[in-house]
Write a structure and sequence with these properties.
With 156 residues, this protein is an alpha/beta fold. Helices cover 35% and strands 24% of the residues. It has helices spanning 3-26, 43-54, 67-74, 99-108; strands at residues 32-38, 57-63, 85-88, 91-94, 114-116, 135-140, 146-152. It has a seven-stranded mixed sheet, sandwiched between helices.
Length: 156
């Protein structure tokens, strides 16, 4: 094998190894990093963070003094606001979005800025209670426009 052919072979093998490594790293098996911004006094925000950790997310909680600033910087529409804001793999997660819905978002990768559960519906993760009702998860884009993403039924 001459030097040019050997160099091309080595370069090609290195590319295959690199691509193979990327496929292994992105195929799962590792926890998704989830950064949660919350007020240090909000208990339901911590309950949601714990719930997400229990569902396989590597959760980092950041207590902040101005959630409004975080929401504005991340483009959360005012009408979709809730008590905490999170970021996972480039998507914004506003409020008590179920882990299964976040997993769907990461699996399907729609062209949205994020998901939101406006308010604090009883029955959502972190807001468990006896009077649970179905609630909606909205998607929103970088312009602040939102639309229905999923309805979460009552589970008992």
């Amino acid at each position: 094998m001459n030097a040019k052919r050997l160099a091309a072979f080595v370069a090609g093998a290195a590319l295959i190894v690199t691509v193979g490594g990327l496929v292994i790293l992105s195929s799962g098996g590792e926890e998704e990093a989830l950064v949660v911004y919350r007020s240090p006094t909000c208990g339901c925000c911590q309950k949601w963070a714990d719930y997400m950790a229990d569902h396989g997310y590597d959760v980092e909680v950041r207590n902040v003094t101005s959630l409004a600033t975080v929401k504005r910087e991340l483009g959360v529409p005012h009408e979709s606001s809730s008590c905490h804001t999170a970021v996972v793999d480039g998507y914004v997660i506003e409020g008590h979005v179920p882990a299964s819905t976040v997993a769907r978002l990461l699996r399907e990768r729609p062209d949205v800025a994020g998901l939101a559960v406006p308010g604090m519906p009883i029955g959502s993760p972190g807001m468990e209670g006896p009077n649970a009702e179905p609630y909606n998860v909205l998607s929103f884009d970088s312009e602040g426009a939102s639309e229905h993403f999923e309805t979460i039924p009552v589970t008992r």
